[in-house]
Amino acid sequence: MGRLAYNPLTMSKTVLTRNNVQVVGRGDDVLVLAHGFGTNQTAWRNQVRAFEDTHRIVLFDHVGAQGSDLEAYSPHRYAGLESYALDLIEVLEAVQARDVFYVGHSMSGMIGLLAGLVRPELFRGMVFISASPRYINAPDYRGGFERPDIDALYETIEKHFDAWASGFAQAAVGPSATPEVVKAFSESLIALRPDIAIGVIRIIFESDFREQVTRLNVPSWVVQPLHDFAVPNHVGEYLAKSLPKGQLHYVPNQGHLPHMTAPNEVNALIAQALAAAS
Amino acid sequence: MGRLAYNPLTMSKTVLTRNNVQVVGRGDDVLVLAHGFGTNQTAWRNQVRAFEDTHRIVLFDHVGAQGSDLEAYSPHRYAGLESYALDLIEVLEAVQARDVFYVGHSMSGMIGLLAGLVRPELFRGMVFISASPRYINAPDYRGGFERPDIDALYETIEKHFDAWASGFAQAAVGPSATPEVVKAFSESLIALRPDIAIGVIRIIFESDFREQVTRLNVPSWVVQPLHDFAVPNHVGEYLAKSLPKGQLHYVPNQGHLPHMTAPNEVNALIAQALAAAS
Question: What's this model's pTM, rounded to 2 decimal places?
Fold first, then answer.
């Protein structure tokens, strides 16, 4: 009855195109770099430069980001980070990657976590950069944001997307960023389709993975910038303590994009984690 | 730094409680029965009776259904069927099930599909009962529902949940159902928390897994009732043709719950599929 024979090539092509998957570098060990909100795989250029001589590097764009197949986006298909986690697993399958070292920034932290819960054997280790299991304060938990702030944020984004994006870019990269980085991040944010940006912002801020982080059976490194407006230090501490195999490292960086604004420090931590996980 | 040692027992307990997992029956082969919208694991009583002497049967309640941990529900955590797919994988992990035969009714069809895409080795075969990859008509696709009908449906459910549930129960089970089955399904629907019921109805009707069904590498049997108001015959045909290893079987049943209203016919098909997959 089957109309299509199962064809790994077809599968790979679908996924490779959808997520604009790129494999670069050389080496036996695989490093997967997963970007956060408002950026795409180009955010990792400093890490690619640092590790391409020693590692095979898998890069991709989450659906909705520049480079991905925007036709694949729908607010219902991508109503939670769980959908991105399934995509991540499909990306790793498509390139037949196993036992990878995963670095996830911001939303890709929890995306990696969810993938690691159902496919732990895919991951040798995980680095969470500026990641938060929950942004909104709750009883016995300080995520850093109050509900009314978040609701006001949604309203602003919906009404004045471009203005918000330019302000957010400045806040996110932090005061120490070079004008080039501010410009790059700002342009990348404004290039997002506003409906997608708003949809993704909502699923990020409404997410709550505090229970799931206690169950990840993968060695994990939490990279916490010293001044991240989106992820306060105690959230990084909470995350590292909650992860069964977690450890915490600070980077002396102001902002939510330390891999872009403090690449040397972040690369040193990644190198350290890579060595420990080998 | 890790505060908690990784503890499979803790993990299992979390998941087992969340999804009210029950393992019954005896035998080497594992049969997983996954319920659809508006029911819970009790919907499978006829199947349990038929297969408990020959199979180990895993039963569970999706989060939001009666029996599950309602505290685990949030509209953001369960914003798409992807979240239920991750739960399903965790349930199978928690009972250390592998190479199972999966039977999914209605929404659990696509939940099984999503789980099977990222964990094909978990599944020896899948039966999709009254399952649809997309309910709303689209260019070159007839799901059976028009957008205005669906929007009107949401409005009705939100305004008059109990009245809708009782009407829906009658329509869903079909005219040939015994009063007992109508009563059981109707009570089970009305017992749902309205906000959860509305949330789940929305993610079902907005879902679109037409691309994903072409990629499932698991032998699959589509069980299509002859008169299912939610899943027209051509949707069952479409599903069976799109599944790479799919085959179609009709059951001479009027309604969306053939495992409850035509249990003998459905059990015969399950037995046939089990034999073919062994």
Answer: 0.89
List phi, psi (to 5°) of B146. -100, 150
Region of poorest pLDDT, from A43-47, A179-183, B156-160, B205-209? A179-183
Rounded to two decimals, the ipTM of the complex is: 0.83
Are A79 and A203 within 8 A, CB to CB?
yes
* Contacts with B79 from chain A: Cβ below 8 Å: 79-80, 203
Rounded distance, CA A106 to CA A189, Å? 15
A108 in catalytic set: no
Provide the CB-side half-sphere exposure for B164 (13 A, CA): 16
Q: Which of B225, B260, B215 is nearest to B110 (CA)?
A: B215
Interchain contact B275–A (C-beta under 8 A): no
CA neighbours within 13 Å on the CB side: how many for B240?
19
- Given A35, A61, A132, A228, the catalytic residue: A228
Contact assessment for residue B89 and residue B103, using Cβ atoms and an 8 Å cutoff: no
Return the bridge partners of A123, or none.
A100
Contacts of B15 (CB under 8 A, 6+ apart): B21, B87, B90, B91, B93, B94
Q: Is A25 left (phi over 0), alpha (psi -120 to 50) or beta?
A: left
Mean pLDDT in chain B? 92
From B170, B162, B169, select the one nearest B190 (Cα to Cα): B162
Q: A73-77, A167-171, B258-262: which range is least confident on average? A: A167-171
Pick the range with the lowest mean pLDDT from A7-16, A240-249, B45-54, B201-210: A7-16
Contacts of A243 in chain B (CB under 8 A): 2
User: Residue B261 carries which side chain, given as an amino acid letter?
Assistant: T
Q: Taking CB atoms and an 8 Å limit, are B80 and A85 in contact across chains?
A: no
The single residue listed with the structure tokens 């407006």 is: A229
**Residues contacting residue B231 through CB under 8 Å, at least 6 positions apart:** B130, B131, B132, B144, B224, B225, B256
In A17-34, which positions are buried (b, 16+ CB within 10 angstroms) versus exposed (e)? Answer: ebbbbeeebeeebbbbbb
Chosen for mutation from A81, A88, A215, A245 (greatest number of chain B CBs closer than 10 Å) is: A215
CB contact (8 A) between residue A80 and residue B79: yes
Distance CA(B269)–CA(B250), nearest Å, equals 9
Supply the residues of B annotated as catalytic: 106, 228, 256
> Are B93 and A244 a contacting pair at CB < 8 A?
no
Count of CB pairs separated by less than 8 Å, A with B: 113
Q: Compute CA distances A133 → A67, A177, A208, A213, A240, whole Å.
A: 27, 26, 6, 7, 11
pLDDT-above-70 percentage for chain B: 95
Q: Per residue in B100-138, pLDDT tens? A: 999 999 999 999 999 999 999 999 999 999 999 999 999
Helix then strand then coil, in percent of chain A rounded to 5, is: 50, 20, 30
Q: Is A163 helix (H, G, I), strand (E, B) or coil?
A: helix
